[in-house]
Amino acid sequence: MTKSEVKIIIGNIIHCPQKLKIELLENGFVVVQGKQITAIGDSATFQHQLTLLQAQGNQIETIHLKQSQILIPGFVDTHIHAPQYPNAGLGYDKTLLDWLNCYTFNLERRYRDLNLAENVFDAVVKKTINHGTTTACYFACLFTEASIVLVDSVIKYGQRALVGKVNMTKSSCRDYVETEEESLENTIKFIDNVVSRNNPLVQPIITPRFALSADIEHMTELGYIAKNNNLSIQTHISENLDEVRLVKEEFGLSYANVYDKSNLLTDKTVLAHGIYLSDEELRLIAAKGSSISHCPESNTCLKSGLCDVKRLLEFGVKVGLGTDVSGGPSPSICKAMRSALDTSVCLSFSKENYEPLIYTDVFYLATLGGAEALNLDDKVGNFTVGKEFDALIVDMNVENPQIDCFLECTPMEILQKFVYCGDDRNVVSVFVAGKNVK
Ligand SMILES: Nc1nc2[nH]cnc2c(=O)[nH]1
Ligand SMILES: [Zn+2]
Fold first, then answer.
1. Quick one: which of 386, 307, 371 has its CA closest to 339?
2. Which end of the chain is more exposed for a tag (fewer CB within 10 A), N or C?
3. Burial environment of residue 261 by CB neighbours within 10 A (0 to 12, 13 to 18, 19 or more)
4. Record's family (predicted)?
């Protein structure tokens, strides 16, 4: 690290030091050297830090936040399908299984065309960064070449990401399916390619689509690949009642037990949705250290159901937020926070003594919760010394905003307004591993 790489961001800083805990550093500071956070503090300790850094001969870049701005950790999208981006906003006349058959497989099979792949994947990565997603956990598609194009886009724009080549040996679509041999061989090829890029921000993730697109033997082989290469795993679980019934009929087991039998439940597994999990399944998932990606917009657009996040957390399951594009129409984790609040309020109408989530809870899910869910909380998720600097400068007083701000807000009010009324216009700067990417 050269001495000239020191940045100090000075102003109002908000993050979650631990699960569901929020901290405001009023007139605080964060020191970033290279990609790492090396100090954080309040106004009382600032001068001491500055003197120390100056005495070390560092060239210091200072960024002073305005009163209308806050510094927050970057957002983590724990579940997004990059190739489905062209279908965002389409197909919500269907529910999950018909939607997959009518819209989704028909789009994903077109990614044999690598020009389409490059155009769409560049757009998705740029768009999600623009909305403040510093880390994304992507489903790519069945094709190895196109999945590598997604890795290219992620590297080009400097996002942190897990990227998975999708595996599926059973499908309603004749030209969007693979044999088990192809699936395993291409998964290894894909992993080798990503590893050979030697980019510390990008890792491959093992991606069986869902229980209905594979058999236990195939999923078990994928579990072995994950174990042998120390990789994360992502899939879908318990999203829709018809799907849950078919899984039970086909395997004679609960959904979580199907994955457990396939060795897919590890402490590096992220399961999307998880709406209809029984207590027993949740105990199993918590014991295995697997996590749930809560995708509230998708759950309502596809009419899958309302996921009770508080229940997941009470069982000790790690939870993050996912956009699930294009099951959900928006690439914005800010929008996912709002949807998570809406879902929780809707649940409170039919449950006695149920306190719905509040804006600070969904802020936790969008930041540290997401990092925990993806097993990246040793690197990102909040402003802890030693972690990498993934952060957003949010400004609620920009030109042409969705809503105008008339009165001066406190830092916590700025966060609250951003959660309820913000969008990409309010995300004025984005940093990934210390690098300014917006
Ligand atoms: N939301 C969603 N659920 C799925 N289950 C299996 N595949 C998918 C998918 O692409 N999106
Ligand atoms: Zn999904």
1. 307
2. N
3. middle
4. Belongs to the metallo-dependent hydrolases superfamily. ATZ/TRZ family.
Q: Ligand 2 is a single-atom ion; what residues have CB below 5 A from it?
A: 272, 324
Q: Which one of 92, 94, 100 would you pick to mutate in the ligand 1 pocket, going by the greatest count of ligand atoms within 8 A of its CB?
A: 100
Whole-angstrom distance, CA of residue 95 vs CA of residue 85: 18
Whole-angstrom distance, CA of residue 367 vs CA of residue 363: 6
Counts for the chain of helices (H) and strands (E), in that order: 16, 17
Q: Is 220 left (phi over 0), alpha (psi -120 to 50) or beta?
A: alpha
Q: C-alpha angle 78/117/176, rounded to 5°?
A: 85
Question: DSSP for 268-281?
Answer: TEEEEE--S--HHH
Question: Strands, DSSP E only, in 209-335?
Answer: 232-237, 269-273, 291-294, 318-321
- Give the ipTM: 0.99
Residue 322 has pLDDT above 70, yes or no: yes
The protein residue with its alpha carbon nearest to ligand 1, atom 7, reads 209
240-281: pLDDT as tens digits: 999 999 999 999 999 999 999 999 999 999 999 999 999 999
* Binding-site residues, ligand 1, Cβ < 6 A: 81, 96, 100, 104, 209-210, 236, 239, 298, 324, 327
